[in-house]
Amino acid sequence: VPATAAATLGGAGWWWAGADLDTAGKIRFVNRLTIPPLAPSQRDPEGRRVFDLRASPGEHRFRAGRPTPTWGINGPYLAPTLRAARGETVVIRFRNDLPETTTLHWHGMHLPARMDGGPHQPVEPGTTWSPTWTVNQPAATLWYHPHPHGRTAVHVYRGLSGLFILDEPGARGLPSQYGVDDIPVIVRDLNLTEHNELDERDREQGGVGIVGDLVTVNGTPAPYLPVTTQRVRLRLLNGSNSRIYRFGFGSGRTFTVVGTDGGLLAAPYETGRVQLSPGERAEIVVALRPGERDALRSFPPETGLNPWDRRWTGGDDTLDVLELRAARRLAPSPPLPARLAEAPRLVTDPATPPVRRFELSGYTINGRAMDMKRIDFAVAQGSTEVWEVTAIDDAPHNFHVHDVQFQLVSVGGAPPPPELRGWKDTVHTPPNVPVRIALRFRGEPDPATPYMFHCHILNHEDQGLMGQYVVTAPGRSAGRSPVRSAPT
Ligand code: C2O
Ligand code: CU
Q1: Among 58, 168, 270, 305, which has the minimal tally of Cβ within 10 Å of its Cβ?
Q2: ipTM topping 0.90
């Protein structure tokens, strides 16, 4: 590492030892991007699609020197991409060969609460858990990760996460050759100790948890992606514990957002930036010219974030994420379809009053921390509710709800921006900006097994910024909430 470059970037907080820097102090993208393998599956006699997953410790090479002890699923680090189509029944046989109890949660999936893999479905070391459900939701980029109460941050950080791609028969027109022009982009940041171990300390000590200097994609530091087609679809996942990214390209080129957390947008939307807080996804399509190189970067936020959030996005600097390298000849890609999906229309009147309010502050929701034994409220199956979520302190927060995909009704009283008008399961909540969401509860009634809602900044979640709801039989009036989230 040239000393001058290190000195320039050291102060920015995200320079990492071993990086190859060019004269402008930017990372040279030296490693070919790893594509997570597609998990093989089998058909059982009932026609169900069966996946075998096994979590275990491993080792992964992030930089020269010793390999880093990590955790992984069906491999030493991260997890294979699962894929299933709407209407299929999946069975996951998940074996825990880790030295600790964990869980496996299907983030964004509509499924029975006892299959959800939250903190109430622990998987002890040496045992196997086999959830099953029928996929019944639109094509989307979902993901999966552990959710053991109080230990989610460290289990995810050590490497347990992967994509779960849902397909829908009939959908077409978008680049869809996995690993060729349809690319998983799991963005995670981490710190290494001088011995190349994962540094699990909260260096900032501000409660936000781990903010890493080393930004990786699919576990690859300083990655480049060879591009061989005119258009390439990137399935972006912010898989980081705490960082917020505002993605864009170094050249200033625009790209097309085609999907949000839970499905495709109604129509493609062209923009230069898309911001993702932890857990959020966006599907984008980028067109390169033959022979061109351009880098996906994370840029400082323009509005809506407080100084804390600015730091987590990289302050006033850009973060290098992934270089796209187009071949001299690019295979033709079909034009993007003008219409992609149905827009969510759970609520059409933006003035619809919320039936519940959630104030996020510190490690609490409405002043209370998570209690595994407390159900915060019940909702009736089939009902639609508007919730208002407001972060009332100066810390960065977002809000994720299990089992449902929701519609953004308003952000600070204004209509949501176009890139957030698709189905969402996680939404950033800028300080003191009320965010209203509409949710329809389709879960099967199970008054004994809760679904979670929480901040996806994983240290906040672990420390208590989480609550639990249950779904009860249709027609029952929505249960009164023991927290201050019921109408007053
Ligand atoms: Cu991605 Cu409750 O989790
Ligand atoms: Cu938070």
Answers
A1: 270
A2: yes
